[in-house]
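Hey, I'm writing a tutorial for new members on how sequence and structure tokens pair up, and I'd like a real worked example in the thread rather than a made-up one. If someone can provide the structure for the chain below, I'll link this post from the tutorial.
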Amino acid sequence: MTRPIIALLTDFGTQDHYVGALRGVALSICPDATLVDITHEIPPQDVLTGALELASAFRSFPEQTVFLCVVDPGVGSTRRAIAAAAGGYRFVAPDNGLLTIVLRQHPPTCVVELTDPRFAHSTISRTFEGRDRFAPAAAWLASGTDIRALGRLLTAWTTIDVPAPRIDADELIGEVLHVDRFGNLVTNIDRATFDRFGAGSAIEIAVAGQTVTKVVTTYSDARAGTVIALFGSGDYLEIAVPGGSAKRRLGLSRGAPVIVALC
């Protein structure tokens, strides 16, 4: 029998006990589970980055994986806690938009609010629902509990605005959505939109006063220290500096415009 997998994504970091507590609760309920850490370095309360990182990672896992996702600036408030089944996976998260991209890519077959007390700790901390509400629910799902048992069915849930690229005459206008630890600037321009706009045409990419005239295949296709454009592993256009950091070189962060123009 295949062991169930619980994949964790949080903004907790690893300095404190928080991640260890999540893992301990999950194993107390589902001792056969394999626990996998996607990341615990989401910037604190940064729901958009959490949504982007989850969307980049989840398809790498086997179907039926349970994703325990906690980036929760509304902890202890009236925001709901939810579980969703989508794309052959299950997700447990606060209802704050953390699942926006995943559920946009794979419309859910079932979304429930976590309301049944049998699948949570008897006392729920107002500051650590990850331990007392989300981790137990994820572990019960991994143990084989039907998602519909966890609470009442929902037909609507919270989403966040994820900026999309737009085409305006001879320009494809995008922006930086994420800066990874290497300083690469990951934009919202996906390969399909880029190809639809400029397939086979000469283009120029303008970013922070720099002009890039072609999209390379890999970082080693250009000299160290030059500003380049390429499609990363998530198939989104990135601005990078081989051997360096595009963030430091260009002084940019999330929201910076990136414009692709036809020559």
